[in-house]
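Predict both folds.
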Amino acid sequence: MKWKPRNLRALAEIVCGNAEHFHYRSSSYITEFFGDCDLDYVHDGSTRWARVSDKLEEILALPQRSPSVPPAPFVKVIRRVLDKGEAQEGDPDRSKALAALNIVLARKGWEAFYDEHGLGQLRHIATNTIAQIESPHRPLTPSELKRREQLLAYLDKCSEDELIEEVLLPLFRQLGFHRITAAGHKDKALEYGKDVWMKYTLPTLHVLYFGIQAKKGKLDSAGMGKTGSSNIGEILNQVTMMLGHQIFDPELNRRVLVDHAFIVAGGEITKQAKNWLGERLDATKRSQVMFMDRDDILNLFIVTNLPLPKGALPPRESEDLDEDLPF
């Protein structure tokens, strides 16, 4: 992420507290600020904004997962700047500070906002991707565990279309995928073995295409799919179709092949099912297939702080959402 000097200086002035509505920091407190962000930094007594600007430029030069996902240390800096504990007189909710910060971030296509927990977040405006720094395998907080249980109950009762539209589509958008297109189940003849196709842009700006084959329940290798589960043999035919069929990319105005296939299950994908599928795919296709089961969906959905589907909320919360709608 290359920033112009004027933008770096504007953000540095915010970190230093030289900008209105932001906490003023002397040299020692600037050192403490970056320490809170888990970054090595000791202020050397030089001009504060210039030294901070150099540090921010160093952070922004770090590798990033995709053009729409900034380096994790930069996200930590933005969250620290928006700490609600540093509210200034005349700006108790930090709305003025947020507006001032967004003037700078918008020049690079970003927008900061406060989430439902009052934590500063960073959103890529073009793709609506929210930058995340947490691992999906970290321990969850009590409030996250509660949300996880609500989502778990929703996965037990939702339909396959609801799994795709209410859970998977928001999740993959949040993870940085774009041009996400759902085939749906109204016209099975047009699916060609995939429920969703999407694109992911690498840091090198090369583009990979992904297809998703989603099943609501458990995937196993039994001779016949049991109630609430699907047989992996069904998936083999659909994955073969997915990898062999071209999709039309309207942005490029040409047809392309799917590079990788996600097999996603709202339940468990048994080890036997994965092994069975691997044995029947050749080496090339085997490397193209990835699995996501219920635990993967739950952890990723909660850690990325996505709002729960309406059907997963308690009745009172669902009613409150209806009251907030402007129509």
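Second protein follows, with its predicted structure tokens after the sequence.
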Amino acid sequence: MSFYRDLNDKPALEAWNSAAHAPFEHLTVERLSPTIGARITGIDLRQPLTGAQVAELRRALHEFLVVALPGQPLSAEQHKTLGRHFGTLHSHLLGASRVIAGGDYDPEILSWRTGPQSRFTAGDAWHADVSCDQHPIQVSALRLTRLPEIGGGDTAFANMYLAYETLSDRLKALLTGLTAIHDGGHAWTQGYGSAPQGTNAFPVTEHPVIARHPVTGRPYLYVNPAFTTHIVQLPRPESDALLGFLARHVERSLALQVRVHWEKDMILLWDNWAAQHHAVWDYFPYERWGERVSAVPDHGPIAA
């Protein structure tokens, strides 16, 4: 069952707004920055979570957009159990191609290994995961199974609520009501050189440029340079110029961002609609391995 709210359900949205920023009773929460990110302790994800713990974990996620949970040496099944608290688990179209020869394939876990022979690393650009899907990933849970010996390999996150709020009123008015095309081939074929498997085609979907979050009710910017090709209602030159400006707005606005330093056995949870992220590849030729479990809701982004 989805826990996402109907945006016309005003009592539910008012209840969220009154609960946001209240003290946490079942988690210990420490901010990572003033605008995005938190570190959470006082919970063991290897054990069954109570309803109160799940509710506070969800609230922390949507309040801070990305939460780091250190000291969580999860098994693959425990990792998937965590993801199911946020929705139906996602199966990535390229998941099978990421499995190392001789390894086991689990369609609900996306894995990768970056090392000295890699031509690229997954996520080395600002993006929202799989925004080309009709119902894009809403929450992801990532763990690294190998960290670079020299350090590095951080993941940076940016707050898309603030990316919208820091635009001028005139630009907000222009963007509201526009839609954009998100194309899997733009990210995976042009970006990674990957081709669809079998007779499948990579998804291409139209989403609102400014969406309204189904949990918080807040508007956020929903375009990213990895997947978004053009704005439907504008000529290509105008679309390219505007999308280029919005990408630079996210990249250059350090006040919107936090950079998360990885630790052994840490789990990173993030809201994939209201935040973008960037995997920093600064550790070549050392190795960084990871596994991601993601949850999808029963609908796509909602126009603001």
